[in-house]
Specification:
Elements: E1 17-23, E2 28-35, H1 38-42, E3 47-52, H2 61-73, E4 81-85, H3 90-93, H4 113-131, E5 134-143, H5 145-156, E6 163-167, H6 173-180, H7 182-187, E7 194-200, H8 204-219, E8 225-231, H9 240-253
Parallel strand pairs: 3-4, 3-5, 5-6, 6-7, 7-8
Antiparallel strand pairs: 1-2, 2-4
């Protein structure tokens, strides 16, 4: 079961804001980290926002913020804000409901993704828009179980974001239910411009499902959807995030 997040390397922590938000939807106080590019501090423009689960200072926030800084400086992607959501009970928040008994053994509580998504949609968006100059464009990225959450959101509430980026999503969850139901969810996608980038490593429990999803997307004609599957058999579950993050961001946001 590939479901861990990969951050073991200690990255330099960039300057950022941190604040706490009390959530009714998840019933607890959550820590939010926000990184801003130089262009935001110097200018008056409203910027797009990239949201990320696993967004704690001890999690994936520093290496993703540093990657944003590098790619923005190199003019490979436009300036944007990065909003990291620090975990409390990661495996509860990032998983949907499951009928599979083995799935339920990964944590004391699972299946909380609907509440976590409601927290982001109904509480966090409002707070970020109040505190920062934001445009109406937003994206979400995540790896492993956070990647599962990204894909689930893309299928179940596609109007929430314009950009979806999932590294090695744990699509085995609930007997690969998101892949099985992909066609019917694609059929009801709203007609808006959406970008979806995802990657699969050499992890057997991941790539069989990411490749299957790629085939389904190839045969679908979802209007307004641009997607890209990055098949990465030379990467392991623990390496794929760092190995492909620049590629993912440049495909999603780079100038064509």
């Amino acid at each position: 079961m590939s479901c861990g997040n990969s951050s073991t390397i200690k990255d330099p922590i960039p300057a950022h804001d941190s604040f706490k938000i009390v959530s009714k939807h998840v019933g607890e106080t959550r820590t939010i980290n926000v990184w801003m590019p130089e262009e935001y501090k110097k200018g008056s423009d409203s910027l797009p926002v990239m949201y990320m689960p696993d967004g704690g200072i001890e999690e994936d926030f520093p290496h993703i913020a540093n990657t944003f800084a590098k790619l923005i400086k190199e003019k490979k992607i436009p300036p944007m804000l990065l909003v990291g959501i620090e975990n409390t009970q990661r495996r509860r928040d990032l998983t949907g409901k499951t009928e599979v008994e083995e799935d339920k053994t990964i944590a004391p509580i699972v299946g909380g993704s609907e509440n976590f998504r409601a927290f982001i949609n109904d509480e966090l968006f409002i707070e970020i828009n109040k505190r920062y100059r934001t445009s109406n464009k937003k994206g979400i990225l995540g790896e492993s179980l956070a990647g599962l959450f990204v894909v689930e959101t893309f299928f179940l509430q596609p109007e929430m974001f314009d950009y979806y980026i999932a590294f090695d999503p744990s699509l085995w969850w609930n007997n690969h239910y998101l892949v099985i139901t992909a066609n019917e969810n694609l059929a009801s996608q709203p007609l808006k411009e959406t970008k979806f980038w995802f990657a699969g490593s050499s992890a057997q429990d991941i790539f069989v499902h990411t490749r299957e999803l790629s085939k389904i997307l190839t045969n679908s004609n979802a209007k307004g959807l641009q997607w890209n599957y990055s098949d990465e058999p030379s990467e392991k579950h623990a390496t794929i995030f760092r190995a492909t993050k620049e590629k993912a961001l440049i495909w999603s946001f780079g100038k064509k």
